[in-house]
Amino acid sequence: MSLIIIGTVAFDAIETPFGKTDKIVGGAATYASLAASYFYNKVKIVAVVGDDFHKEDIDAFTEHGIDTEGLQIKEGEKSFFWSGKYHNDMNSRDTLATELNVLADFDPIIPENYQDCEYLMLGNLTPIVQRTVIERLKNRPKLIVLDTMNFWMDIMMDDLLETLKLVDVLTINDEEARQLSGEYSLVKAAKKILTMGPKYLIIKKGEHGALLFHEDKIFSAPALPLAEVFDPTGAGDTFAGGFIGYMAKVGTINFNNMKNAIIFGSALASFCVEKFGTEKILNLTEEEVADRIQEFVKLSAFSIEA
Amino acid sequence: MSLIIIGTVAFDAIETPFGKTDKIVGGAATYASLAASYFYNKVKIVAVVGDDFHKEDIDAFTEHGIDTEGLQIKEGEKSFFWSGKYHNDMNSRDTLATELNVLADFDPIIPENYQDCEYLMLGNLTPIVQRTVIERLKNRPKLIVLDTMNFWMDIMMDDLLETLKLVDVLTINDEEARQLSGEYSLVKAAKKILTMGPKYLIIKKGEHGALLFHEDKIFSAPALPLAEVFDPTGAGDTFAGGFIGYMAKVGTINFNNMKNAIIFGSALASFCVEKFGTEKILNLTEEEVADRIQEFVKLSAFSIEA
After folding, report:
1. Is B18 in CB contact (< 8 Å) with chain A?
2. What is the rounded (10 degree) CA torsion for A141, A147, A153, A159?
3. Which of A213, A264, A300, B281 could covalently link to A190 via disulfide, CB atoms 3.0 to 4.6 Å apart?
4. Domain residue limits at B13
5. What's the pLDDT at A90?
């Protein structure tokens, strides 16, 4: 039994109003697997890097108990590289460089040891690669979560719709939900999207929290208001990783557990943005995570007598 | 003991993607007093209208038990008129006409019968008129709530800052909180604003809910996701009226009661947007309100074991 996370493992160079980094390790699978590792100890990644990715970069995964057998290292090639600059509001950014490199022809090979997969997180990648992973698993996982973005809706909507039919949970932001459904109201958008395959829809609203839709039920999760957002990179992936890591831990798929999973994912994401890149989520203590969860509880609790 | 609500009583002509209205009764004091009347039965308004405001328009207030002795009717003059058109996203609008009319030289006269005021809602008006009302009350109310907008920050910031020193609760939206404080982070903005006079700050975020700040505490209230927002006009005033109406009902000023008051205000606002103008909030049953409150409870409840 394991949790497989597929996505990018990459180098990022990030500039925010608070400073800038050289190339640091990033990528959806990096953030998501680190986050998931706080709740579940059988996390395995499927990704591809070049030979510029060094042993010490891989150590960060193994120190968190993350299985890297599915991390392909392509000799003579370079890792995916992204560079971006955030504006003062931290909500918008300019992409300065995107070098696909090894990602251009990524073939997601699933090691035999990974065939015990019960939980599958399909990080943001082409919908075709995401679908290939599902097809290569001998048994259908108990829970498949898919993250995607507007980019794939723009250029590969048909492929995305095909892949969506195969998943249980979709995580997208509010604009993407509107684009995917053609509906402005998120309630109407969710209703449509829940006919496309996913039985659960999570709409990520960044500083405004997240919404979970399932059948006729809605859960609204708060975001923790922060004095300083240092670097938003990876927050969405950290959220998704925390979410599925918690689901893998509790093992029962239902609406109530998903509500909690969203709070755990949000808590991890709130740490992620406090420092550059993965710095903060590399070294959290159990106590720090537990305290942050309690902050979420306090933040949204109220008690009205019926 | 009473709750005084001061603000505009006006005519609005509204166009939304769903249709348009002729001149209908609107204005901040109208929405706020109707909302407050669901929770408290000693609501009194201070406002001014022209002689185009007819007896049947006033009946809507009296039917809700709202005291209109403080509603001045200026013979030979016209009521404040606003006309606007909402865009398809319902979050932005164009103002088509603003005719101040009687509002241009509004002198807020407080009837002697109003001097028992314990709760005061200062709806969006010039900060000078808002301050005048406070000065004309012989005893300082137990709770003063002030609503304002960016317009007054643009043209009368000094007067606004003077008035702010006198109030307990400020309600503004997120952009206004940023403008007033000069801080982008709402946590930092709140910290600054809470040194300006108000001990409580409510940041209204529309479809994203509301935040309450007090000392080092934060409460995040959800908004009810709606399939259709028919007309957003008056939602903020309805929220504020529901908020102070509930506070007047419970009578004890503290953070926990304010959390509930925000939920009650949000519930009333969620009704307001379902029809044009005041139509929906004119005729709510106790059961409808109670059911809506339970929807808010379900929407945000989760239970994580420590």
Report:
1. no
2. -20
3. A213
4. 2-300
5. 77
d(CA B132, CA B207) in angstroms, rounded, equals: 33
Q: What is the mean pLDDT of chain A?
A: 96
ipTM of the complex: 0.93
3 state SS for A24-65: EEECHHHHHHHHHCCCCCCEEEEEEEECCCCHHHHHHHHHCC
| Strand-pair partners of A122 | A6, A146
Sign of the CA dihedral running B116, B118, B123, B129: positive
Query: Looking at the complex, does the CB of residue B91 fall below 8 Å from at least one CB of chain A?
Result: no
CA distance A11 to chain B (A): 28
CATH number, domain of B117, equals 3.40.1190.20
Rounded distance, CA A73 to CA B245, Å? 64
* A306 has pLDDT over 80: no
Alpha-carbon distance B96 to nearest alpha carbon in chain A (angstroms): 24
Closest-CA residue to B246 (of B256, B258, B234):
B258
pLDDT of residue A258: 98
A188 touching chain B per CB within 8 A: yes
Beta carbons of A222 and B306 less than 8 Å apart = no
The answer to whether the CB of A129 falls within 8 A of the CB of A233 is no
Residue A232 token pair:
């938003």
Provide the number of structural domains found in chain B: 1
Give the C-alpha separation, A3 to A245, whole Å.
Answer: 8
Between B185, B259, B299, which is nearest A220 by CB? B299
215-234 in chain A: CB under 8 A from chain B: 217-223, 225-229
A225/B218 CB distance under 8 A: yes
Average pLDDT over residues A239-248: 98
Asked if B97 is an interface residue toward chain A (Cβ–Cβ < 8 A), one would say: no
Q: Which residues of chain B have pLDDT under 70?
A: 305-306
Cβ neighbours, 10 Å, residue A173 = 17
Establish if A114 belongs to a structural domain.
yes
Kindly state whether residue B20 falls inside one of the protein's structural domains: yes
Whether B98 has its CB under 8 Å from any CB of chain A: the answer is no
In a domain, A140, yes or no: yes
At A130-145, the pLDDT tens digits run 999 999 999 999 999 9
Q: Residue A118: pLDDT above 70? A: yes
Q: Which residue among A187, A225, A306 sits closest to B225, beta carbon to beta carbon?
A: A187
Tokens of B165: 């020193």
Q: In chain B, count of helices (H) and strands (E)? A: 10, 14
Q: Is residue B279 part of a domain?
A: yes
Tens-digit pLDDT profile for residues B202-224 = 999 999 999 999 999 999 999 99
